Amino acid sequence: MNLYFITSLFLVFLALISLIFGNYLIFNNLSIFLEYKFYGVNSADLVMVLLFDWKSTIFMSTVMFISSMVILYSSSYMSGDLNKIRFLLLVVLFVLSMILMIISPNLISILLGWDGLGLISYCLVIFYQNVKSYNAGMLTILSNRVGDAAILLSIAWMLNYGGWNFYFYLDYMDKDKLMIFIGSLVILAGMTKSAQIPFSAWLPAAMAAPTPVSALVHSSTLVTAGVYLLIRFSPLLVNTNLFKILMLTGALTMFISGLGANFEYDLKKIIALSTLSQLGLMMCILGAGFSNLAFFHLLAHAFFKSMLFLCAGILIHSFGDMQDIRFMGNSVKFMPLTCSIFNIANLALCGLPFLTGFYSKDLILEVNLLTNLNILSFFLCYLSTGLTVCYSVRIFYWSFISEFNFLTLINLHDEDWLMIMGMIFLFILSILGGAMLIWLMMPVMMTIYLPLPLKLLVLAVIMAGGILGVMVNYFYMLMSFRVQLKFLSFLGGIWFMPYLATYGVNSSTLKLGLGFKKILDLGWTEELLAMNVTNNLNKLMNFFQVTHMNNLKIYLLIFVSWIFLVFMILI
């Protein structure tokens, strides 16, 4: 526990230093490059470059602060686990990989951080060692390997420019066809890491990890790495067809995940699908060309999403590791503090005015009204915002208002001060973080002039989503179990995407492997190698055994044969 506490304090200290440094850079309009050269081959130098500008330092500060709160929370959450130190080391390595990726304007050092995130996330997903965790971990790492391969290819193509520091080439190479090809590979990498369609299946599956890891992964580390990389590459790709495709993909991801969360009963998977929905919103506004707005929502979303997962961890602990929201009714009477914090985080997620989520979501949706956005993306963005409120109301109803459905002899209570302390700081940022960020990132007020009906459209969508959430709960309970199961398997399963991403990809490969096994391992290979060698060895063993067991007779036979041979030679 002392080690957890010391690590948490150290990360808070680093987060404060990074925040002060970021403020200094943003107010003086500075960017700092630190470069160290390892060696050069012809015109290509292998250098380690670190970029410190306001984006990297503010994001680094957010990552370190959230990870410090998660580690403080974990000191109590993981106290009964046998592998506490392993867990802490993995989380620290995870944060270091993310920081390396944040401050790198060089594709090779980005790959180190990127691969570190993928590998350590696999170790964390399989932390609880069972079949479900292994399957989820394998799906996670194989999905992310697609993005790793895309970055490796882009590294190979970047060699044509004489170096891998993409940041130096973005402004004057944006019309070069080769750079557009590199940009398309980077978009593919960003889509896999941020779980956009069709790579969405791994994100809900990764919920097999411990809850503190989910809080870290879904707020500021693994899934945000893809968005952050595309924000860095946005000067290259803005106003291209690639970003238009990304915008539509983001809107579709947002819609499908929002719809799926309304038909899911696993608490952690609902919050995971809400993360997917918010990532879709970031990708949508990034594709429209507003990278600073996407970055603003990235930071704002990190505060309340990490808090949602920490509250969910306390609920799951109290209910004896039960994650089904249908068992969690009326818990507000037993756990008032946790439920209050959970609901504030939910309201921030919905975009309730003057909470953290409002400042970024409202601005994004109003900017959408001003841009040349096609009607499909516009409709999906606003409908998905309504669906966010819809599933938030659903969680609120099933977890806190409905009848108590669990065992009567159960000890429900708010957890100890370590867990609560980790949540309180994030709770404050979920209320004040949006205002602080908008003052910091936009010192000149961004005024958007719209007609009154369009100004009120966002609030109308939020209200309509809340009403729809109440109606969905009511009508869903009236359905038969068979109809509910159909809805759950199709919409709750993100439109059969997990089946397509696992069985659809794996089944043909596994069948081919089985065929080879039958033909080779159990067929000719076995006959010619294994069985043949075994039979010959058996014959030799039998021969030597006979020799050994009949040693006197053999000795006399050899003696007579020797006498006979000597006699023949002498004659």
Indicate the proportion of strand residues: under 5%
Spell out the helices and strands N to C. HEEHHHHHHHHHHHHHHHHHHHH
What separation lies between the terminal Cα atoms? 95 Å
Q: Tell me the overall shape.
A: globular
Unreliable parts: none
The strand count comes to: 2
EC number: 7.1.1.2
Transmembrane segments: 46-73, 85-104, 149-167, 179-203, 215-233, 245-263, 270-288, 294-316, 337-355, 375-397, 417-442, 454-475, 487-505, 552-570
Family: Belongs to the complex I subunit 5 family.
Catalytic activity: a ubiquinone + NADH + 5 H(+)(in) = a ubiquinol + NAD(+) + 4 H(+)(out)
Give structural attributes.
two-stranded antiparallel sheet; mainly alpha; 2 strands; 571 residues; 21 helices; globular
What does this structure look like?
The chain is mainly alpha-helical and 571 residues long. 74% of the residues lie in helices and 3% in strands. It contains 21 helices and two strands. A hairpin with a 2-residue loop joins strand 1 (32-41) and strand 2 (44-52). Helix 6 runs antiparallel to helix 9 (222-237). The longest helix has 53 residues, at 497-549. It is globular and about 130 Å long. It starts with a helix and ends with a helix.
What's this, in brief?
With 571 residues, the protein is mainly α. Helix content is 74%, strand content 3%.
